[in-house]
Amino acid sequence: MAGSQPEVCAVPSFSDPILVARVEAIRQLAGGISDRVAVVDREFNIVYANSSAWTNREPGDADAHQAKCYQAFAQRTDPCGACPATKVFETPDVQSISCGTEGDGTACGMRQAFPLAAGDGQVTSMLVLFNPLSQTTLRTALPVSNDLPALTVREHLGDLIGRSAAMQQLFDMIVLVAESQATVLIQGESGTGKELVAKTIHRLSDRRDKPFVVVDCGSLPETLLESELFGHMKGSFTGATANKRGLFEEADGGTIFLDEIADTTPTFQAKLLRVLQEGEVKRVGGNQPIKVEVRVVSATNKDLSELVKAKAFRQDLYYRLAVLPLFLPPLRERRDDIALLVDHFVVASCKRHRQAPRTVSPDVMQALSEVAWPGNVRELQHYIERAVVTTTGPELACGDIVALRSKAPEEGLRMVVRDAVSLTERTRIVEALRKTGGNRLRAAKLLKISRAGLYNKLREYGLQ
Fold first, then answer.
1. Taking every annotated instance into account, which residue ranges of this chain make up the domain Sigma-54 factor interaction (predicted)?
2. Which residue in 291, 240, 228, 231 sits closest to 264, CA to CA?
3. If you ran DSSP here, which 8-state letter would residue 290 be given?
4. Which of 75, 85, 281, 442 has its CA at a distance of 20 to 30 angstroms from the CA of residue 353?
């Protein structure tokens, strides 16, 4: 039976410590799950495969740890030909490769491949996720007679929402990395939900009952950031009137989330690297090392690999942080999720502002799906909340949606600025009318405009 076969791991064949750490982290988190996971090198040798990856081949036979992936997973004697996953070796800076979207995709069932870089930055192997075994394959591998239930698409993982293929792949990766103790680097544009992913990883891990500590590295100067993270001793600087525990100590046993890690200085990066290597911190002004057991999850909206090339970020720290990298897709690449997100945000906003439930018409939903949303999920959430607050009626009205559509950039910056001003004006007018109980004279005084000016604005924005 596939799930009962031992896993295979050839980690000792690697000499690079970063790659060894990455494969070991994958082994720890993939060993006891039903998802099919493997690591394959450039020559298609199986470096690691969990027990679920095997179908009707016993990994203990014929030196399976030296088997080729096409032999073990596709039952072929020759290579598969043009394997799409090899693009992770051929294309610089590729983040992942989707190997197939229909049926089982490739002959071996490979679904997605992620590059695994060594300490020198060279991609020498890849992490492979396979499609779940088809019913035909399972009936061949497992002696069962009952039909298996159809696979379902998850729309939620914790507080994360999405049914698109990109989000399904992200959900799979989060489940994989959650039980690992390795560091995780989350990369994605602003507003894609990096902190939410970090919280989900923590809540799914065995650290869920321990602290989850968030640090915004970009908002603090270097000296203050060091004091906040590592703590300080009494008298170590002006204002240090007592010993203070750092956030690493506060997060002991749990997870610390270092947001905007790319905005830190080289000096701080060197000190953080030591914490990751030694598992201990030294308070500012102190000499005694303090042992901490913390899982580090970091995030950035910048391309750290490019910053490493530009000598703007330490390469050794990058590979320590990115043992398990995750990439969040922007909203424009997962438009299938917009309707699901809109429904969720409408319900949440109505509840927050104590309004009756609202609906969204198909025309408005279609318009929302066509918007570029450069601010990603956060921008969509704020837009829906504004629409709920500033409109009335059972159906959500989005009168300014045309101005937000993806054609707006073609009309120039002036048009974008004008639309933003109009939206702000409308919101302020509605707030003023609510504060004055609908008294237009008092609302005009509150807004510091004439009564005639207010009437004109009411007509302009359809607030009559």
1. 160-389
2. 228
3. E
4. 442
- β-strand pairing of 184-187 with 212-216: unpaired
If you average pLDDT over residues 213-224, what whole number do you get? 88
Ramachandran class of 412: left when φ > 0, alpha when ψ lies in -120 to 50, beta otherwise: left
What does the CA dihedral 27, 193, 216, 116 come to, rounded to 10 degrees? 30
Residue type at position 220: L
Q: Which amino acid is at 295?
A: R
Count of C-beta atoms within a 10 Å radius of residue 404: 21
**Six token digits for residue 72:** 């073990």
Give the architecture (CATH level 2) of 332-460.
Answer: Orthogonal Bundle (1.10)
Per-residue pLDDT reduced to its tens digit, 69-110: 877 777 777 777 677 777 878 776 677 777 654 444 466 777
CA distances from 267 to 33, 270, 314, 358 (A): 40, 5, 10, 52
* Protein fold of 2-151: Beta-Lactamase (3.30.450)
Give the global pTM: 0.64
Site of tokens 């039980």: 179
Residues of the chain with CATH 3.30.450: 2-151
Least confident of 64-68, 128-132, 168-172, 202-206: 64-68
